[in-house]
Amino acid sequence: MVLSRISFISLISFINFARGSPLPEADSHHKHDHVDRRGGTCAFPSEEGMVAVQTSGTNAGWAMHYDQQCSYGSWCPYACKPGQLMAQWDPEVTSYTYPGSQYGGLYCDDNGVLQKPFPEKDYCYDGKGTFIAKNQAGSDVAFCQTVLPGNEEMLIPTLVGSNSDSVLAVPGTDYWASTASHFYVNPPGVSVDDGCKWGSTANPWGNWAPYVAGANMDDNQNTFVKIGWNPVYLEDTSPFKNVKPSYGVRITCDDPSQCEGLPCSIDPSSQDINAVNSTQSADGAGGGAFCVVTAKNGAKANIEVFEV
User: Fold this and answer.
1) Domain-embedded: residue 131
2) Which UniProt keywords apply (predicted)?
3) First vs last C-alpha separation in the chain
4) Is residue 93 a contact partner of residue 150, using CB atoms and an 8 Å limit?
5) If we measure between CA atoms, which residue out of 76, 86, 175, 75 comes closest to residue 124?
6) Who has greater pLDDT, 94 or 280?
């Protein structure tokens, strides 16, 4: 199977992340600024398109870990509406390297004033619109997008109602470091409040959800979409490694003639755990099987969630 360089690099970085825990908290100050000794925080601004997440936590709406504040001298990422992408990040960071990969969003300066690094850009902007989540299950499904640039925790919510659909965020090469968007696909019936945050082995959702997905578009109008097994779900220490999920996922296209890589599906009713129905399946870092579909010429691809 041949992947674009963009989608392949993004896929590997995502699966490596999925096996661990959220990245360490970003440095408490910008790499070119002095540490402010007075302390203090910047409030979530609720600008056009922004979505406040985990509002009961000390992050107070920012797309940061539950107990992490937007403190003086730090970068503070935020979530956007479904189908949209964050348009602000540290302009000096142009590659996927730590700790710069955490410098997304707005900068809370040493005086507690939020700085917008790209003043000419909106806070959020529409993605390519070529990846559609379709929920064929009997309950709502929470798609939880990871925050990048940011701590890569799955905090950005898209709730797809039963028998309905929603556009997922698809970045182009103009997005930060040409990275893709990544999602955890939670079991039907799990809310975004429960699914779109770092979880534990108590339940198979959040970072323990069985399935992950991702998408990006290259400069030739090819959209690369992937579905796969979450490596964390499969680990030897996972209590879920021998538990078949009660739902499956598959990629479909409204115009199959514009899509390469079909079929691409995971159906626990007819497949073993960590099995993918595809002629071009592969195993990623951590051993999670996945498949990729290329939707050409700006065509749309769907990720369908169904009960088994």
Assistant:
1) yes
2) Signal
3) 28
4) no
5) 86
6) 94
